[in-house]
Amino acid sequence: MTWTSRERVVAAIEHREPDRVPININPVLDFYLALKDYLGLEFDEEVKASYMFEVTPHPRVLAALGVDMTAVKLASPRGPRPTRPSGAPSDGGLMFNDWGVGLSRIDQPAGGSYMEPVYHPLAKATLDDLEKYPWPDPYAPGRGEGAEKEAKRLYEDTDLAIVGRFGGPIVETALYLMGFETWLVRVKKDPEFVEALLSKITDIAMALDRIGIEATGKYLQIFKISGDDFGMQTGLLYAPDTFRTLFLPHLRRRWAAAREQLDQVNPNIKILFHSCGGIRPIIPDLLDIGLQILDPVQPRAAGMDSAELKRDFGDRLTFHGGVDEQHVLPLGSEEDVVEEVRLR
Fold first, then answer.
1. 228-276 residue pLDDT tens
2. In angstroms, what CA-CA distances link 318 with 222, 305, 321?
């Protein structure tokens, strides 16, 4: 039997053994351009990067690497891109995303760059401010344009598995809106405000999910229901009780709505969730609300040992990731990388 990429991914997420482990890649812009150059792939391409510089690679690049998956996203609304919100600094070359967060480009000494949130429009917000804030409009003209056409093209013209990415994170968005330190203090001292803020963001994320699933659902194999980092290297970023009382209800509401819609369009689609760090204590909670694929699985973080995760959750979870990208991939030798892949 000759396996297609889509068949390979579907087998893996249905807990059937494929011919080999499926491969995925989610590059940022500078790396992607360097990768094309290294591979000797010279062709015209309109490279579109997100405001965090993520790029969806061209199928020719994916084929050269043996990658099995690609992603489809919603388009940005028609009209002018977000500009400086009232009260934001007017200098510094900041770029503002749809939420009004100001981001500054940070260049890395060894090459590459990333966007750091530096202006947080809700850093001093009150409950009343939430009612007046100019929230992004999920139904803005052009939001869903092209998504169905692109998903159909990928489904018919390639054999890649297709991942839908639409609504974005909930908690990470709140953190960017407020700033990390301010956010952590408000989580502890002002749960009423945090609850109201998360409700606003969840409503918008759910609307974007609905638009994306309606447009592309019949072509998808995986739905990435966003990414919210609940872990750090040494364990959970938030106390388990805080996670379960303050954050989990919003995840549950969003995930339940998405699952209901997915089941109407294509019940075979699996739900993928991203959370970095040592999140071992809350994996059962995520399973209870519908988690099927966990990403990125950092094996050096506390509690995230590959063998232990497989032993405890392997009958219910698919693991998307698992190779050590903190030390081995950036710092190891070629032999180290080979051994790491064999180990995982």
1. 999 999 999 999 999 999 999 999 999 999 999 999 999 999 999 999 9
2. 11, 15, 9
Q: What whole-number distance in Å separates Cα of residue 310 and Cα of residue 227?
A: 21
274-299 per-position pLDDT tens digit: 999 999 999 999 999 999 999 999 99
149 Cβ contact partners less than 8 Å away, ≥ 6 residues apart: none
Strand order in the sheet with 102-107: 95-96, 102-107, 113-119
Would the pLDDT of 49 be above 90? no
List the one residue out of 138, 136, 140 whose CA is nearest residue 82. Answer: 136
User: Which position has the token pair 């981001």?
Assistant: 103
Rg (alpha carbons) of the chain, rounded to whole number: 20
- Whether the CB-CB separation of 83 and 96 falls below 8 Å is answered with yes
Strands 113-119 and 222-227: unpaired
C-alpha distances in Å from residue 53, one per residue of 29, 113, 171 = 5, 8, 20
Residues whose CB is less than 8 angstroms from the CB of residue 322 and which lie 6 or more positions away in sequence, other chains included: 296, 297, 299, 306, 344
Question: Both ends of the chain: CA-CA distance in Å?
Answer: 25
Two tokens, residue 9? 């991914």
Q: Are 269 and 222 in contact (CB under 8 A)?
A: yes
For 226, left (φ over 0), alpha (ψ -120 to 50), or beta? left
Dist CA 250 CA 236 (whole Å): 18
In whole angstroms, what is the distance from residue 148 CA to residue 117 CA? 31
In sequence order, which residues have a C-beta less than 8 Å from that of residue 157 and are 6 or more positions away? Answer: none
pLDDT confidence tier of residue 112, bands split at 50, 70 and 90: confident
**How far apart, in whole angstroms, are the C-alpha atoms of residue 343 and residue 199?**
42
